[in-house]
């Protein structure tokens, strides 16, 4: 962290460390709200450029009134607390519509708005006005349909892979290794027992035995964000962690869903790729490890994983100097339905010094 930078410090106790867990995602409504924030605050972020270009009419047209809640900087609206962590748009909408006036006022009181019309609508929203809440739900639903749903399959596969990587980190090195995987200096750093994150303002949060939920997030740029419900002191705060940090990951997510998939699926019929998919089923592995298991060159292994990834059967993410491959739900389902898991040819494993 640079000297003088505002930071959020999250303080862990021994009890908090054993209560750290990983969620599937931050929730569909929080992800969708992230679209509007990215469009307003981080328009030039290279990993998201393909996504912004792919939305018909542009992100601004899709986000509608959400732009009023995105602001030009500073605190963000906590849609995770207001709409929950569900991956269902309908369930998220129901939760948001049932949010109390106290919840809405607590989340909106620190936000600033740039235009008088927006301020009027937001005041009605803070008062719990049903029509104002429905206006927000409609905007989130429209933005999700235009900007998130077209990429839903790849987003799900990406988050599955990230979560599997976090689980592997926990198994290999406990919370210490997980926090190292979550952090991306200089935006965030882990110095036990404190997690420090760049923030619009200086603050200290003491978990006080509640633990922490780590939620991998797609539509979030650079720095993690901490969500917590001030009306529920027993609930564990949720750390929303950005997972799209480089152009390669972004390119894989925003590629045209209709292009190349058929060819890739046909190309999957083959002994080596069937074996590769079976190997990845046993846990995330690097390209080098996969090459050893398949007894092929690293370049050949990379080509095979490219076909599997483009078909949505595995996901790929960077972990330090390595690239890790993890099977997706679609890949696991394919193995189950075709019987590949039981019958894929066993390849010779090569021992290396």
Write structural notes for this entry:
By secondary structure, the protein is of the alpha/beta class. The chain has three domains: 7-24 and 153-248, no CATH class; 29-150, no CATH class; 258-343, Winged helix-like DNA-binding domain superfamily/Winged helix DNA-binding domain (Arc Repressor Mutant, subunit A, Orthogonal Bundle). The protein is 51% helix and 14% strand. The strands form three sheets. Strands 3-4-1-5 form a four-stranded mixed beta sheet, covered by helices on one side. A four-stranded mixed beta sheet has the order 2-6-8-7, covered by helices on one side. The chain has a three-stranded antiparallel beta sheet with strand order 9-11-10, with helices on both faces. The longest helix has 31 residues, at 152-182. GO terms for molecular function: DNA binding; DNA-binding transcription factor activity. It holds the Pfam family HTH_5. Keywords: DNA-binding, Transcription, Transcription regulation. This is Transcriptional regulator.
Please trace the helix and strand order, writing H or E for each element: EHEHHHHHHHHHHEEEEEEHHHEHHEEHH
Major sheet: size, sense and barrel closure?
4 strands, mixed
Count of runs of 4 or more consecutive helical residues: 18
**How many distinct domains?**
3
- Physical arrangement of strands within the biggest beta sheet: 3-4-1-5
Distance between the termini: 40 Å
Helical proportion, percent range: 40-55%
Q: Could you report the average pLDDT, rounded to the nearest whole number?
A: 82
Uncertain residue ranges: 258-267, 340-353
Number of strands: 11
Radius of gyration over all CA atoms, rounded: 21 Å
- Please report which band the strand proportion falls in: under 5%, 5-15%, 15-25%, 25-35%, 35-45% or over 45%: 5-15%
Secondary structural class? alpha/beta
Rough outline: globular
Oligomer: single chain
GO molecular function: DNA binding; DNA-binding transcription factor activity
Keywords: DNA-binding, Transcription, Transcription regulation
InterPro entries: ArsR-like_HTH, HTH_ArsR_DNA-bd_dom, Metal_resp_trans_reg, WH-like_DNA-bd_sf, WH_DNA-bd_sf
Organism: Streptomyces purpureus
């Amino acid at each position: 962290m640079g000297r003088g930078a505002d930071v959020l410090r999250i303080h862990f106790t021994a009890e908090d460390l054993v209560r750290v867990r990983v969620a599937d995602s931050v929730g569909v409504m929080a992800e969708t709200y992230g679209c509007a924030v990215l469009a307003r605050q981080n328009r030039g972020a290279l990993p998201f450029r393909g996504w912004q270009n792919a939305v018909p009419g542009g992100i601004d047209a899709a986000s509608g009134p959400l732009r009023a809640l995105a602001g030009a900087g500073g605190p963000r609206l906590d849609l995770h607390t207001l709409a929950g962590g569900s991956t269902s748009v309908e369930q998220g909408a129901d939760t948001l519509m049932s949010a109390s006036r106290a919840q809405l006022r607590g989340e909106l009181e620190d936000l600033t708005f740039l235009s008088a019309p927006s301020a009027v609508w937001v005041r009605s929203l803070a008062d719990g006005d049903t029509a104002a809440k429905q206006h927000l739900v409609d905007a989130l639903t429209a933005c999700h349909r235009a900007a998130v749903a077209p990429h839903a399959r790849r987003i799900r596969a990406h988050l599955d892979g990230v979560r599997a990587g976090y689980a592997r980190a926990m198994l290999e090195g406990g919370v210490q290794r997980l926090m190292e995987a979550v952090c991306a200096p200089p935006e965030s750093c882990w110095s036990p027992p404190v997690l420090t994150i760049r923030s619009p303002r200086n603050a200290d949060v003491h978990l006080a035995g509640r633990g922490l939920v780590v939620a991998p997030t797609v539509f979030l740029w650079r720095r993690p964000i901490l969500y917590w419900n001030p009306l529920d002191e027993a609930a564990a705060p949720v750390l929303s962690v950005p997972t799209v940090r480089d152009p390669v990951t972004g390119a894989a997510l925003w590629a045209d869903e209709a292009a190349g998939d058929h060819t890739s699926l046909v190309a999957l019929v083959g002994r080596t790729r069937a074996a590769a998919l079976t190997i990845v089923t046993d846990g995330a592995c690097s390209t080098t490890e996969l090459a050893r298991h398949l007894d092929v060159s690293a370049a050949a292994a990379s080509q095979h994983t490219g076909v599997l990834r483009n078909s949505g059967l595995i996901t790929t993410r960077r972990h330090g100097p390595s690239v890790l491959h993890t099977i997706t739900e679609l890949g696991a389902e394919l193995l189950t339905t075709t019987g590949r898991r039981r019958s894929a040819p066993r390849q010779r494993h090569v021992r290396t010094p």
